[in-house]
Write a structure and sequence with these properties.
The protein is α+β, with helices and mostly antiparallel strands. It has 8 helices and 15 strands. Strands 4-3-5-6-7-8-9-10 form an 8-stranded mixed beta sheet, with helices on both faces. Bound molecules: 1,6-di-O-phosphono-alpha-D-fructofuranose. The site of 1,6-di-O-phosphono-alpha-D-fructofuranose has 13 residues, from loops.
């Protein structure tokens, strides 16, 4: 009988922490609290088809988009699970306009938590995979001060940990603390996240491209050429690629992490800064993909080097297998130099 080795997320976090003799355990506690919130959100997401929870609340989020009840539930759950641990000095959520202070009665810690509670939520009614994305920074303001915007406006290179939880055919918690990317699948019977993918490495080159082609008309000429290039036949470079677009960033990137490929949400003539948010979606995903050996840029520079200027900043993103991202950058740079090409 094959020997089965169980490694829970909780144990993995502690074992990783032991590798750093100076670690205080605070980051481990944060990750642990996040995993508890993820379990509760997962349960609620799985019930979505049954309960009255489906449908709009009638409210709009800070971006003017219609919010569904599950977004609110996931947001409230994360805030409640994370505000009293004594490890955070401030939080910010894609669903809330302003930064989220730690209530006065709780200890102020040294970490900052940014999150998108339920990304892809416009897909909930269709039972499509959705996800929670998070990003953890060390505060840059002096200890003891309750909250400041400056702590939330750090570039992605300052992240100490990041992760996502995908609620799909199973629930998977994927995280990096700067030493590789590990994934844990929730066993619904035990209620535990069990190690399922160690040190994920994204293939250097993939065969999948993910982009909303409905926006083709508005793209940069170099991007149009790149997509046409991917669709041409050439055995040597393994083209044509397959197009796969779920419209749920966590699901699209998770698939590409395992199979290889590129995910793009570019700027276009209608949306000059793209759609996705730098702090809640792009930075954490960029950290994870880079840790898996991939690449993430805005077409010119590393996503994690973009200096955020405001909380809900958007940024174009090209992310995935290194060679594929380099190729789209090349196409766009060449078209910029020769606009008539
Ligand atoms: P929602 O959270 O509103 O469903 O948006 C999802 C998302 O932020 C990201 O997960 C998708 O990749 C992207 O938007 C899809 O956007 P388009 O519908 O414009 O392709």
């Amino acid at each position: 009988m094959p020997q089965i080795k169980f490694m829970t997320l909780a144990r993995h976090i502690v074992e990783e922490e032991r590798k750093y003799p100076k670690a205080t355990g605070e980051l481990s506690n944060l990750l642990h609290d996040l995993s508890l919130a993820a379990k509760v959100i997962s349960l609620e997401v799985n019930k979505a088809g049954l309960a009255d929870i489906l449908g709009f609340t009638g409210d709009n989020n800070v971006h003017g988009e219609q919010v569904k009840k599950l977004d609110i539930f996931a947001n409230d759950m994360l805030v409640k699970a994370m505000d009293h641990g004594g490890h955070l000095c401030v939080m910010a959520s894609e669903e809330e306009e302003d930064i989220i202070p730690i209530p006065e009665q709780f200890k102020i810690g040294k970490y900052v938590l940014l999150f998108d509670p339920l990304d892809g939520s416009s897909n909930i009614d269709a039972n499509v995979s959705i996800g929670t994305i998070f990003s953890i920074y060390r505060r840059v303001t002096p200890d003891g001060h309750p909250r400041t915007m400056a702590d939330c406006l750090q570039p992605g290179v300052n992240q100490v940990a990041a992760g996502y939880i995908i609620y799909g055919s199973s629930t998977i918690f994927v995280y990096t603390a700067g030493k590789g990317v590990h994934a844990f699948t929730l066993d619904p019977a035990f209620g535990e996240f069990l190690l399922s993918h160690t040190n994920i490495q994204i293939p250097k080159k993939g065969k999948i491209y993910s982009i909303n082609e409905g926006n083709y008309l508005y793209w940069h000429p170099g991007l149009k050429k790149y997509i046409k290039y991917l669709q041409e036949e050439d055995k040597k470079t393994k083209r044509p690629y397959s197009g796969r677009y779920i419209g749920s960033m966590v699901a699209d990137i998770h698939r590409n992490m395992l199979y290889g490929g590129i995910f793009m949400y570019p700027a276009d003539s209608r949306h000059p800064t793209g759609k996705l948010r730098l702090q809640y979606e792009c930075n954490p995903m960029a950290f994870i993909v880079e840790q898996a050996g991939g690449r993430a840029t805005n077409g010119k520079i590393r996503i994690m080097e973009v200096q955020p200027e405001k909380l809900h900043q958007r940024v174009p993103i090209f992310i995935g297998s290194e060679e594929d991202v380099l190729m789209v950058e090349k196409f766009m740079a060449e078209s910029e130099e020769h606009p008539d090409k």
